[in-house]
Amino acid sequence: MPNLVDIVEVAEALESKAVYLASDRCVAVRNRHSSCAKCADACPTGAVFAADNVLSLDAETCVACGACTTACPTEALIPLRPLDEDLASAVVAGVANTGGTAVFACARIASKHVGDPTKYAEVPCLARMEESVLLGLAARGVRDIVLVDGTCATCRFRGNVPGIDAVVASANDLMAAQGSDIRVTRASAFPEEALLEDKRKLLGESRRGFFTSARSRAKDAAGTAAEVMVFKNDAAGAPSLRERLRMSDAGTLPQFNPERRMRVLDAIDSLGASVAPEIDTRLFGSVRIDAQRCSVCGMCTVFCPTGALVKSEVVPEDGVGSYLEFSVADCVQCNLCADACLKKCLEVDSVVSTAELFDFEPRMIHLPDPPKRAGILSSLKR
Length: 382
Description:
Blueprint: H1 4-14, E1 19-21, H2 27-30, H3 38-42, E2 48-51, E3 54-57, H4 67-71, E4 77-79, H5 84-98, E5 101-106, H6 107-110, E6 121-123, H7 131-139, E7 144-148, H8 161-177, E8 183-187, H9 207-236, H10 241-244, H11 259-270, E9 278-280, E10 286-289, H12 299-303, E11 309-311, E12 322-326, H13 336-340, E13 346-349, E14 351-353, H14 354-357, E15 363-367
Parallel strand pairs: 5-6, 5-7, 7-8
Antiparallel strand pairs: 1-4, 2-3, 9-14, 10-13, 11-12, 12-15
Helix pairs in contact: 1-9, 7-8, 7-11
């Protein structure tokens, strides 16, 4: 039999944070001058915040709604309840049981037991939903995608509504830009095909069934505790955040590819060729640089977290100036390049060219040679 200490440790492992902090991805951690506060703005309880190169989450205040994980452009906040993979598995099973309709429901309406749990995927709040899951379903031929809420107007976390609407609009705009007529809809009632037919399915377990499942849960808990101990041991020898953010040989901070953005690109590409020349989106961005004001300091390339903006090795044919290479598909609109720009000559726009979005070749941005600085002795010449 496990002792009390064992039970407490297992409980702590099972009641871990609902969000994992990948701090080295946070732009406010990478540069204290970052203006990004999207996670804090989205959080309805003030549980998450980033300042002074530190990303923090108050687990006791957090309500696991997932709003911060959807708002974060660099995926520095990763949802754990549910994981993206678990959510995808749940909705695939639900689509099979409804005959083709994908239904997502918030915990509030799920608790009313009017929907069949085998026919929808439950999330703590619809703010947990993001474009890669919705577009992934459309790419697989699911034509009806419904988000069911428990009447947001009366929910204590109704401040999440603008974010939910933004995600739905974003997904629909991206599908429309590809010529698809599939749309994501919102409702405050389950569609007929997802309603619960027999409430007896929800009756509690029998006494024997309870103890059988209890043994199974205890086994899972023991496995979880073992995983936590392994994680703790591994973490003890893991590199620190400062070490992980050490400058690379290329003269930039470590870079990464946000997985959700890549899944979105794959999904909309599978929907067909673009029919709109440009789109206003929250997921990708376009950079403009005033070359006449630029001092070619390179700070934008140093701090870009995804490598969307890099120094080019291509030399201008006339030998004058230099190039930056910019990839729309890699830009996540975190705005860190603009925040790091010493001359404030760089702007990030939410309107992107669909042709450029799917172009494998980066856009070349020509910059003139920086003005030569006067030598120390030149100031003494008369």
